[in-house]
Amino acid sequence: MGFKGMAESSTAWLQTMVACGGKRITGNFIEYYNTTRLHSAIGFIAPKDRLEGRQDAIHKARDK
Hints:
Layout: H1 3-19, H2 22-35, H3 47-51, H4 55-63
């Protein structure tokens, strides 16, 4: 498949996702990824916790 075929395929996929509530699904995933999922690169805390400065308190609570 050439570039044009890939671009057409991607466009069709995106149109289908939008028609089927893809924005809601994507938004839900982003919310989960940033507020619930633990990330190993930042010490197994959620990015929102890191951004709001709660990483030290979280790590202290785990170490008890």
